[in-house]
Amino acid sequence: MGTKIKAKYEGLCKICGEEWSVGEDIFYQKEPKAICRDKECFDGQGGTFTPFKGGQTTLSGGYYGKTPIITKLPDVEVSDEVKKITEYWDQFFLVAHHKTKSIYPSEDVTGDRFGQIRSKMMDQLMSLIQMVKE
Ligand SMILES: [Zn+2]
Fold first, then answer.
1. What is the CA(90)–ligand 1 centre distance, in A?
2. How far is the CA of 35 from the centre of ligand 1 (A)?
3. Which end is more exposed in the chain, N or C (fewer Cβ atoms within 10 Å of the end residue's Cβ)?
4. Cα of 20 to ligand 1 centre, how many Å?
5. CA of 2 to the centre of ligand 1 (A)
């Protein structure tokens, strides 16, 4: 079973000639030996790599962490209006973050439960602003 590791040394694949430098992600497998930066070449050397394994389990038993999310970003220009909204979003995020922290001081800031409370708080703040505006 191969893994994806950060290269500790500079290397060169003997098969395809692909080069990698220190700190780059490469595919590595001990038995049978396979190493390359290129996934296809690594597979060709008899390597196996399943990106879904080795993730973390959440408190509720869910699975997250290593599941790749592929996002295709649209190639568009961002208007000033949207930039303004993004600025608001940042402000809401900041307020929600501090608010969550003060209400749940023992909650781990890096934990996913904190993130859930914070995002809920953001939703509430955004609906509150609608009320204030009307
Ligand atoms: Zn190679």
1. 43
2. 7
3. C
4. 10
5. 14
For the chain, give every domain's residue range.
1-65, 80-133
Q: How far apart are CA 60 and CA 112, in angstroms?
A: 11
The beta-strand segments (E) located in the chain are 3-6, 11-12, 19-20, 25-29, 34-36, 56-57, 63-64
Write out pLDDT tens, residues 66-100.
556 677 888 888 899 889 988 988 998 999 999 99
Indicate if the pLDDT at residue 50 is higher than 60: yes
Q: Ligand 1 centroid to 59 CA: how many Å?
A: 39
Terminal Cα distance for the chain, rounded: 59
